[in-house]
Design goal:
Radius of gyration: 30 Å
Number of helices: 24
Structural class: alpha/beta
Strand order of the largest sheet: 4-7-10-1-11
């Protein structure tokens, strides 16, 4: 007889089912996956040698876990992935509010039912997807919410006195018995509520309105916390922290390649909807570089962090900006231009916390500066650095390009240009072809127009050219010509 086909306690006994705690489930299934060399946490990138090994060690040690890190570091996603380490189904006493195991019932309801019906006690099966519960810690959370309270309506319906423990309405934690229970942003939970968790983590005692219940709850606790919260909004009380087995530090992607993989994974649906928009590889690098620049910017509060969601929403906006421009210009199929990056500014301003100096600059100006810094950083990976002091005999690789602009009255790249006109306009600048051929010969033909515009923007940031924003595009000039025009 298959275990899962059992519908009564007696049939379950005959099937050979053996009780396991949730921590034992997680440990045994993790050991099985590690033995088979299977990937334990799918879709988690950049943590292969840092966070994931520590999390696996914590599970093997049967610890409650605290994931400590800034926002947008996949803390909740890691916790949700732990569900895959649970058994597919577990038996539950039918009608139990707290998922009682028939072999180890802890509620009075389940104990009385088994005592009355014995082997005929009805059994239901709970799928692992239903064994995940989470609560966002906010200052208004009460003990009644997470532990429980006396229910006067239940007392009236059952005609019971308030001295009878059957009048108790269980909160979220008892109802998550035999489940993974996540409390997000733990420091935001009031200290008195955190105190209520002490005995649950250690002994399983639950106190509700004077009832001293002995409920040895079987729960895998996962907490998440932001280091900023320890000083700005609250803290984890020391005795509770002492009862958490493992504290694991998360982090942002450490390389551009990892960041690109994460963004591609999270924006796959948006990219599929906009297959008519081609995105050059360099554009993807610049997009990720914006987040890296933001984490180092003097205008942004580094303690608050810069979420990986910045790159994700910025990429979505970048695609939409190019798509809209292409449709307006009669190009259903188009490619991303560097000027399209101005369309990602709303994705940046909502994702960063500015310090005082940043507030003085203004959120929009800070966002523009981050894009400019990203362009400059990426430019120096392809082309020679521009030295402030050069010997007279040193050859300047940008001399021909700057001279080209000196001889022109102005050069404009308008958003209203269709793709063919845009490319023809850039092809007028012949020194750009020489630069790309010499220093970036690996660039594909499809990416060359973007690379040409990229060089112009970078030389503006490196003070070789000047740029003026127009209503519907940009105008480039040489620095000297721009200075004269300004006069």
């Amino acid at each position: 007889m298959e275990i899962q086909n059992s519908t009564t306690f007696g049939a379950l006994k005959k099937s050979g089912y053996q009780y396991k705690s949730i921590k034992e489930e997680l440990r045994s299934n993790l050991l099985l996956k590690l033995t088979k060399k299977q990937t334990v946490f799918e879709g988690i990138h950049g943590y292969e040698y840092t966070v994931v090994p520590e999390l696996e060690r914590a599970i093997l040690s049967k610890h409650n876990i605290n994931l400590l890190g800034l926002r947008g570091q996949a803390k909740t996603r890691l916790a949700r992935q732990m569900v895959t380490l649970l058994d597919e189904y577990i038996p539950v006493v039918a009608g139990s509010e707290i998922n009682d195991d028939p072999f180890k019932p802890i509620s009075r309801f389940a104990q009385n039912l088994i005592s009355e019906k014995g082997d005929d006690t009805p059994i239901t099966w709970l799928h692992r997807d239903m064994r995940f519960s989470e609560k966002l810690a906010t200052p208004d959370v009460t003990v009644a919410d997470i532990i429980g309270d006396v229910d006067p309506i239940k007392a009236a319906n059952l005609k019971l006195s308030y001295a009878d423990d059957r009048v108790i309405h269980f909160g979220m934690i008892p109802r998550a018995n035999r489940c993974i229970f996540v409390i997000n942003e733990l420091p935001d939970l009031q200290a008195r509520i955190q105190v209520a968790l002490f005995n649950i983590l250690q002994e399983g005692d639950v106190q509700i309105r004077g009832f001293a219940l002995r409920l040895p709850l079987d729960i895998q606790f996962v907490f998440t916390a932001n280091p900023e919260d320890y000083t700005n909004r609250g803290s984890i009380v020391t005795p509770l922290k002492d009862r958490i087995g493992s504290q694991i530090l998360t982090h942002y992607p450490q390389t551009l390649e990892t960041a690109r993989i994460i963004t591609a994974q999270e924006t796959a649906a948006a990219a599929a909807e906009k297959e008519n928009v081609y995105v050059p590889e360099l554009a993807k690098d610049i997009l990720e570089q914006i987040s890296f620049e933001a984490r180092e910017s003097e205008f942004i509060d580094s303690k608050s962090g810069v979420s990986a969601r910045l790159s994700i929403t910025a990429f979505q906006n970048l695609l939409s900006t190019a798509e809209r421009r292409g449709l307006n210009n009669g190009n259903p199929e188009t490619a991303v231009r560097l000027s399209d990056f101005l369309g990602v500014i709303p994705s940046i301003t909502g994702k960063v916390e500015l310090v005082y100096e940043g507030e003085q600059e203004g959120a929009n100006e800070v966002a523009k500066q981050l894009i400019a810094d990203a362009v400059k950083t990426q430019f120096l990976l392809y082309f020679p650095k521009i030295e402030k002091l050069q010997k007279q005999d040193d050859k300047d690789p940008y001399h021909e390009l700057v001279n080209w602009f000196f001889e022109q009255s102005s050069f404009e790249l308008l958003d209203t240009l269709d793709d063919q006109e845009y490319q023809l306009q850039l092809d007028r600048i012949e020194p750009l072809d020489d630069l790309i051929h010499t220093y970036a010969p690996q660039i594909s033909n499809d990416d060359i127009p973007f690379m040409k515009e990229f060089i112009l923007w970078a030389l503006v940031e490196l003070k070789k050219l000047s740029k003026y924003n127009l209503t519907d595009g940009v105008r480039f000039k040489d620095m000297y010509g721009g200075y004269i025009s300004g006069l």
